[in-house]
Each structure stands twice: as structure tokens, then as C-alpha cells.
Design a protein that fits this description.
Layout: E1 5-16, E2 19-30, E3 34-38, H1 45-52, E4 60-65, E5 68-69, H2 75-79, E6 82-85, H3 97-107, H4 113-121, H5 137-149, E7 155-159, H6 167-184, E8 187-191, H7 195-201, E9 204-209, E10 212-218, H8 219-223, E11 226-232, H9 235-244, E12 249-251, E13 256-260, H10 264-276, E14 281-288, H11 291-305
Parallel strand pairs: 3-8, 3-9, 6-7, 7-8
Antiparallel strand pairs: 1-2, 1-4, 4-5, 9-10, 11-13, 11-14, 12-13
Length: 306
């Protein structure tokens, strides 16, 4: 079955002076994805998004949008089907939300009913005539998404869309983003430092650190590898016994060790080995990592290598 690729980067790199902000980045966003683009501050997320939008020229590599290599000959025709909200949205504060949308609608020669549709989608119908300078932060974020959606793009790129919002505002933006692929056929690339939010909306993620790709794939596969935790009275001795038997282990706390990537038989054998050494077992259980745990482990491991 052929799956349409909405966005691809191939060995994409961007160098500022002697330093690489992005290096050899290859990712693929499929039609209908909500693709979480994750990394610590300074990882190269915003730089990558700006190259995807043609705002920065790559040092090396290429960007393909809707199967077409992004260059000057096709940039305008391709990007007309891309909407974006990068960093903070920009408005005319002394105009109403409706007037701000009208400016973009006329500039892009779009039908007026697009305004009515996006106001409904972001739930600003009752606030459309209010001056933007009097909008709350959450309302401004929703208006920014409305401006990105007004041409009903095939691809929507969002950089920290819940930045600074309270829990209610975050939930509203989350539900809005989740509805876009199914209701409107819009594929979403979203960057956020709120990993719990990405975990609730994304089906695919890419994790980068220092401009390099650490992981790309389905979120469920990233989280599905269970860990076996054993609470014991002799943590150091337990660690040495299991490590000596070839287990991949780490100390979770001062009385708990974790066994990575083990099946049921290996777990049973581990407990038997510890008991045979007169080590007490207080608790043994299987736990599943969430996205935050995986992210911290991945990015911390890379930091140690440097």
C-alpha cells in the first residue's frame, strides 16, 4: 500500500559559521500524521522548520514538500498549501480579530467563508470584533492558528503552539490540533517542549539533539518496551550479580534496579539469581516508559557521549 509522503528532509544540514545547527537530518511525514518534532532548547527544531518553509537556505541536503524539491522554481506554488505558526503570532493589535483575518483573506484572495470557518474551528466567533490588544494569551494563540489555517493548507507547521497557556488553554489547543487530520485532511508537524501534550496528540515523533536525529518512528513503538524493576535490600550487590549474568541494568534509586529489554523467562531467572545470593526482594514489577522518560534518557545519553 502506497502511503503519501507530505514532507521529507534528506541529509538536511545548516551551518552558521563553523557550527552546525542541523546536521544530516532525514525525516518523513506521512499524510494524516500528527508528527511531534522534539528536542531540547537549541536542538535545531526552529532552524529545521524555517528551512522547510524556505525561510532559510540549507547548507547541504534537501527538503521535499508534497513530493517536490523545495527550490525557487516551485517554492511559491508548493508553500501556498502550507500554513505555519512559528514562534509568537504577529497581529495588528489595534484591529479586531476579524479585521486581522480579513487582511490575510484579501491578500491571499481567499473566499470570505474561510474566515467564518476558521473562527468556528478556533472558537473565536463571539470574540471576533474585540480588539486583539485586549485578547488573552490563549485567544491570541487561537487567532494565530486561525491565520495559519485560513487557506486550509495540506500541511500545518506549529512551533510551540501552547506556549504560555494555562491548563484550560492547553487542553483547547490540544483538542483543536487532534481534530485537524480527520475533520479537515490537514497533516500537522508540531514542535513543543510539553512532552505530555505531544504524547496525547502525536502518532509519530522525531527526537533530535544538537541538530542530529536520535529517533524517528511511531510513538507507540518508542514507548512499548517495558522495563522490569526490582526493589531489593542490597542494591550494589544486585547490580553486580545481574550485570555479571549479562543483563542490561541501571540503578533507578537507592533500593531499586531496572532490567532493560527482558522477557518473562529472563526476569524469573534474575529473581532466582538474586535470591540464591541471599538478597531480599521487596517488590518486582513491569513498568512502561512514557515519552518524557524516553526523551530524557535519549538526550542525556547523547550528552554523556560528548
Amino acid at each position: 500500500m502506497h502511503i503519501e509522503k507530505i514532507l521529507e528532509t534528506k541529509k538536511l544540514s545548516k551551518k552558521f559559521g563553523k557550527e552546525y545547527s542541523v546536521r544530516n537530518l532525514t525525516i518523513s511525514v506521512k499524510k494524516g500524521d500528527i508528527f511531534g518534532f522534539l528536542g531540547p532548547n537549541g536542538a535545531g527544531k526552529s532552524t529545521t522548520m524555517k528551512m522547510i518553509l524556505g525561510l532559510l537556505h540549507p547548507t547541504e541536503g534537501e527538503v521535499k514538500v508534497f513530493g517536490k524539491k523545495l527550490d525557487n522554481s516551485v517554492k511559491n506554488s508548493v508553500l501556498k498549501d502550507v500554513g505555519c505558526l512559528i514562534e509568537e503570532p504577529s497581529f495588528y493589535p489595534n484591529l479586531s480579530g476579524l479585521e486581522n483575518l480579513k487582511l490575510v483573506q484579501k491578500l491571499l484572495n481567499l473566499p470570505y467563508h474561510n474566515i467564518e470557518k476558521v473562527l468556528n474551528i478556533v472558537k473565536l466567533e463571539d470574540q471576533k470584533n474585540k480588539l486583539v490588544k485586549n485578547y488573552s494569551l490563549g485567544m491570541k494563540q487561537r487567532l494565530g492558528i486561525a491565520l495559519a489555517l485560513i487557506k486550509f493548507p495540506k500541511l500545518l507547521i506549529l512551533d510551540e503552539p501552547t506556549n504560555g497557556l494555562d491548563p484550560t488553554g492547553i487542553r483547547e489547543i490540544r483538542e483543536l490540533i487532534k481534530s485537524l487530520p480527520e475533520k479537515y485532511g490537514i497533516t500537522v508537524l508540531i514542535s513543543s517542549h510539553l512532552l505530555s501534550e505531544i504524547e496525547q496528540i502525536a502518532n509519530t515523533v522525531a527526537i533530535i539533539k544538537k541538530g542530529e536525529l536520535l529517533y524517528e518512528g511511531e510513538l507507540s513503538k518508542l514507548e512499548e518496551q517495558p522495563i522490569f524493576e526490582i526493589q531489593t535490600n542490597l542494591i550494589n550487590q544486585s547490580f553486580e550479580v545481574l550485570q555479571g549474568l549479562g543483563y542490561t541494568v541501571k540503578k533507578q534509586s537507592n533500593d531499586t534496579i531496572q532490567i532493560m529489554n527482558s522477557d518473562l523467562n529472563k526476569r524469573a531467572a534474575a529473581i532466582e539469581a538474586l535470591v540464591s545470593q541471599q538478597i531480599k526482594i521487596y517488590e518486582a514489577k513491569s513498568v512502561t516508559k512514557n515519552l518524557e522518560q524516553v526523551f530524557i534518557e535519549m538526550t542525556s545519553d547523547l550528552e554523556r557521549k560528548f
